[in-house]
Design goal:
Blueprint lengths: L2 H15 L12 E2 L2 E2 L1 E6 L3 H12 L4 E4 L37 H16 L5 H15 L3 E2 L3 E7 L5 E7 L2 E12 L7 E3 L13 E3 L13 E5 L3 H12 L4 E6 L9 H4 L3 H6 L5 H14 L5 H8 L4 E5 L5 E5 L2 E6 L2 E5 L1 E4 L3 E3 L30 H5 L23 E3 L5 H4 L9 H19 L1 H10 L17 H8 L1
Parallel strand pairs: 3-4, 3-8, 4-5, 8-19, 10-17, 11-12, 11-17, 12-13
Antiparallel strand pairs: 1-2, 6-7, 7-8, 9-18, 14-15, 15-16
C-alpha cells in the first residue's frame, strides 16, 4: 500500500470512529412530481466542497453544480497566475478538523517530511491537485459542466434552479441553495468608468481567462498594486512583453497586512456577534489600509529590467490614438499596446444573469447601517445583510417568499460573518457554521414530522425478560400498614 493510500484508509477510519457521515434524517420531499434535493451547492471550488462535506457529515444530502470541467473548479488552474499561494503553508484550510484531510498530510504522504520542511509556500497548481484529491476522498457529488441559468425562490418551500448542461436544459428543486461562487461571488470584476468605452481588444481584467502569450513584444500597462497586479505583470513579462509598467495610484505600497493581524479564533467566532458599528469599523479599516502584495510576488516582477513601478499615477484618461493606447496621468502620458485592469471585484448583480430574479429583493447593508461620515465604503454598503446561517433577507418582507432559502457562502458575506466563507484560513469554521445553521433550519421546518417520528419510534431497549419481579417481605408489608 502506498503512503497516500494509507492516508486515505486512515481518513476513512477517522470517519468510522466518529460515526460520520450521520444517517440521513431530512424527510424526503416531492414537489411537481420531482424529488427535492436537501441542498444544492452552486460552485465546486474549495468553499463549495467544504460546505457540501460539512452538510453530508450532518446527514444532509448535498449536490454540487459547477460550470467548469472536472478538476478545474475555482481559479487555481485557470485564471490565477501566482506561483504559490499567499497563505502560510501550515493553515489547515478546508480540512474540517481532520488531520488526515490537510494539505500537509497529503503532501507528506507523497513527498515526505523533509520535503515539507523545505517547502516555503504551496505551489498554486499543487494546491489544485490537493483539491482534486479532497474531492475524491470525500466522495463528493459534483456535477461538472452544469451552468446555473436562473435561481427562483418559491413560496412553497423550494428553490427552483434552471440548469444548462451538455445533456440539455433541466429544472432542479432544492430545499436550500448555497452560493459558493468565490471571490466575485455576487458580481464580477470591477472596472473604472474610463474602461467602459475602450474596445475590448485593447484590454483585459486580471481575472479574465486570457492567453498571455499574445502580449509577447507588446508594451503593457497594468493598473493596480495588489497581488493580482503583480501576478499579471509577471506573467506578461515571462511571456515576452517588450515592457510592463505598473500604474499605481498610491505614493507607495502598503507594507503591513492588517488582515493577518486580525486573524485569531476570537474574531473568527466572534465577528458574527459584534455590534454593527464594530463589524463595519473592522472591515472598513482593513479595506482602507489595503493588503500589500506578497514580497515574492513583487520580486517576481522587479527582477525584470523592462518592468517599472510608477507610483502616484492615477489614471485620468485613456484614448486610442494611432493604433496605440495613450494613458494620461498626473505624472505623464504613457503609450501602451495593451492594458490589464487589476482593480478587484464588486457586487454587480447585472453581471450575473442567474441572479436576476433575486437581486432586486436582497437586503444589503446600505439598508441596515449608516456609517459615520468619512467611513463610507461602497463594498460594505453593497454587501448583503445575512442571517445566522448566511441566508439572504428580503429588502421588503413578503416581496419574494423563499429568498431566505438561498445562502451566501462567498466573499461578500465577510461583513456579516467575517472572512470565513472562501479564504483559506477560516474556511472550515465557516463551512461548519453554515452546515449547522442549515441543519437547524431544516429540522425546525419539519419539527411536526420529526415529533411524529419520535412518537412512532418503537425499538425496545428492554425485552421484558431481563429481571424477575420481587415482593416485599412480611415485615416490610406490616411496617407499611402501621
Amino acid at each position: 500500500m502506498t503512503a497516500l493510500a494509507a492516508l486515505e484508509a486512515r481518513f476513512q477510519q477517522d470517519l468510522a470512529w466518529l460515526e460520520l457521515p450521520a444517517k440521513p434524517w431530512v424527510p424526503p420531499k416531492i414537489v411537481d412530481d420531482r424529488a427535492v434535493l436537501d441542498v444544492a451547492v452552486i460552485g465546486g471550488g474549495q468553499a463549495g466542497m467544504a460546505a457540501a462535506a460539512s452538510l453530508l457529515h450532518l446527514g444532509i444530502d448535498a449536490v454540487i453544480y459547477d460550470q467548469s470541467p472536472a478538476g478545474f473548479e475555482g481559479p487555481w488552474a485557470t485564471t490565477a497566475r501566482m506561483e504559490t499561494l499567499r497563505s502560510p503553508k501550515k493553515l489547515t484550510g478546508p480540512a474540517l478538523g481532520f488531520a488526515a484531510l490537510t494539505f500537509r498530510a497529503w503532501f507528506e504522504a507523497q513527498f515526505g517530511l523533509q520535503a515539507w520542511e523545505a517547502l516555503d509556500k504551496i505551489p498554486r497548481l499543487q494546491w489544485m491537485d490537493y483539491l482534486r484529491w479532497y474531492r475524491k476522498v470525500l466522495a463528493l457529488d459534483i456535477r461538472n459542466d452544469h451552468r446555473i441559468d436562473a435561481i427562483l425562490p418559491r413560496a412553497d418551500g423550494v428553490v427552483e434552479l434552471h440548469i444548462g448542461a451538455p445533456a440539455g436544459r433541466s429544472v432542479v428543486l432544492a430545499r436550500r441553495v448555497v452560493l459558493a461562487t468565490g471571490r466575485d461571488g455576487l458580481g464580477g470584476a470591477y472596472l473604472p468608468p474610463l474602461a467602459q468605452n475602450l474596445p475590448q481588444a485593447w484590454w483585459a481584467h486580471s481575472c479574465d481567462d486570457m492567453d498571455y502569450g499574445k502580449l509577447a513584444g507588446k508594451r503593457v500597462g497594468v493598473i493596480g498594486a495588489g497581488a493580482s497586479a503583480m501576478d499579471s505583470a509577471a506573467t506578461a513579462l515571462e511571456a515576452g512583453a517588450e515592457r510592463v509598467d505598473l500604474l499605481i495610484r498610491r505614493a507607495q505600497f502598503p507594507r503591513i497586512n492588517k488582515g493577518k493581524g486580525a486573524g485569531n479564533p476570537g474574531l473568527t467566532n466572534g465577528h458574527v456577534d459584534l455590534p454593527d458599528e464594530w463589524k463595519w469599523r473592522i472591515r472598513h479599516y482593513i479595506n482602507v489600509q489595503q493588503t500589500p502584495p506578497p514580497s515574492s510576488s513583487v520580486q517576481r516582477v522587479a527582477k525584470f529590467a523592462n518592468a517599472r513601478f510608477l507610483f502616484g499615477t492615477a489614471i485620468d484618461k485613456v484614448d486610442v490614438v494611432d493604433n496605440s493606447l495613450r494613458v494620461t496621468t498626473p505624472r505623464g502620458l504613457f503609450e501602451f499596446d495593451f492594458l490589464i485592469f487589476s482593480t478587484g471585484f464588486r457586487i454587480d448583480w447585472s453581471a450575473r444573469p442567474e441572479f436576476a430574479a433575486i437581486a432586486p429583493h436582497i437586503r444589503n447593508w446600505r439598508a441596515r447601517y449608516m456609517p459615520p461620515i468619512g467611513d463610507e465604503d461602497i463594498e460594505l454598503s453593497d454587501s448583503p445583510d445575512l442571517g445566522a446561517a448566511f441566508e439572504f433577507q428580503q429588502k421588503h418582507p413578503g416581496s419574494l417568499p423563499g429568498l431566505e432559502r438561498v445562502h451566501c457562502f462567498c466573499y461578500p458575506a465577510a461583513l456579516a460573518h467575517g472572512t470565513v466563507s472562501g479564504d483559506i484560513p477560516a474556511l472550515s469554521d465557516g463551512a461548519r457554521r453554515l452546515a449547522q445553521g442549515i441543519a437547524s433550519l431544516l429540522y425546525c421546518e419539519d419539527v411536526g414530522m420529526h415529533y411524529k417520528n419520535i412518537q412512532a419510534y418503537a425499538e425496545p431497549e428492554l425485552a421484558g425478560d431481563e429481571w424477575t419481579p420481587s415482593e416485599p417481605t412480611e415485615r416490610e408489608r406490616q411496617g407499611a400498614s402501621r
